Amino acid sequence: MSDSSLRGKAAIIGIGMSPVGKVPGRSPLWLAANAAKKALVDAGLEKHDGATASTMFNIGAAAIHGGLAKVVLVVASDSLMTGLTPDLALRSLTESRDQQYEMPFGIPVANTFAMTAHRHMKEFGTTAEQMAEVAVIQRRHAARTPGAQQTAPITIDDVLNSGWVTTPYHKLDCSLISDGGAAFILTSAEHARELGAAKPIYILGGGECYTHEHIFLMPSLTTTGAVDSSRRAYAMAGYGPKDMHVAGVYDCFTGTVIMMLEDLGFCPKGDGGRFVAGGQMTYGGQIPSNTHGGLLSFAHPGMPGSLFHFHEVIAQLRGQCGERQVPGAEIGLVHSLGAGFATNATTILGTENSL
Amino acid sequence: MISSEDAKRKPVPTPDADSAALWRGLRDGVLLLQHCGDCHNVQYYQQGMCRECGSENLSHRAASGRGRVHSFSVVHRAPGPAFKADTPYAVILVDLEEGPRMISSYTGGRPEEVTFDMNVVLVCEPIDDDTTLPRFRRA
Prior knowledge:
By secondary structure, chain A is an alpha+beta fold. Chain A is built from twelve helices and eight strands.
């Protein structure tokens, strides 16, 4: 039995089931919660012992480690730009808001993120100019990335004068609407060696955290599940934020990047705006981030958005980034989030030297 | 995926078994919160069990309707054609006096009036014969 077998590696420690058959007067949410509650009791666990979402990378790595698969293909694509009119693309993103509690009020997806950024401004003094700086830096990065969707240089004033979307966000604080797709092949380290892969990049750590269903249930508008997901990923990898050479940080909006840089441990909570304005998220700074331009300037096709961050960080670690190469990059981090900050997933990647 | 025709209509909430009482209450002019008889948690998001302790010993009580703005954002680019004519409008997160936070939109004034920590009060606004939305105006 090889070491990659699932045998003896995982165990089911709790089971639960809701009433089944004809169960009138109960919603699907109730049925799921009822079963989950029983399974937690069965396992002797508390509600807060569980609760993780997942990324395809973390699941893929687990499947390989567990022996469920030898090779995993991670792939996603979407066509938000040409497949839909702009109105329908926005409306389609908005359909992810809650049908009863949110959608009737006309809440764009940007609004959820805008309210967190607005609160961050109120609590920590983060400024519109600091948020705009994120867009300016990432546009500069995109200009050096072949194939990026937006490459024309922009200034802070350009961002501030680009028109309101939903306060405090202007058009250039928001990510693009794009088509695109990305794919990856994952396999075991052993199999990678058998295959003679030129420069395999290893998944050193992964962590996930799920904190809420809807923005009005978010425990804090300014501190996210990225704190927990990254802590788990760092612990598994045996590295900390100071050890990262490059990062792909989810950037659906400029303010999101500022909050993520804080929660991932690159700077103290509340200092994100000053960190960015001080040049710390670009070349020569503490953590060059979104060196391909990110969702703000490279591309944002929806579903596969953060797969491009993976693509970039892996390319950086392989040393394939040409004029935008971060010198000596051996260890990198990718952080993605979804559903209005509800799901957070961190993955740490490294070269052979980092193992 | 929704059609162009559907996108022109404002979405109307479809109550489920958990939320039927909430929407019925709003038609009667009250905002019903769920009070846990065991841990005394109060919740707005209607469920069959307490989100804090899992108890099903919940009862409905009308909220005072008073709250404070925790955060807000003024929408200039509507989420689709149905809301275009309403822009600009302020989406607000309101901390209700009883504890829970809810999302809503500001009514009875200009969106520019909204500020952090502003006191607001519930307005039950009918949008059709079946549905009344909980919105807020300046207290």
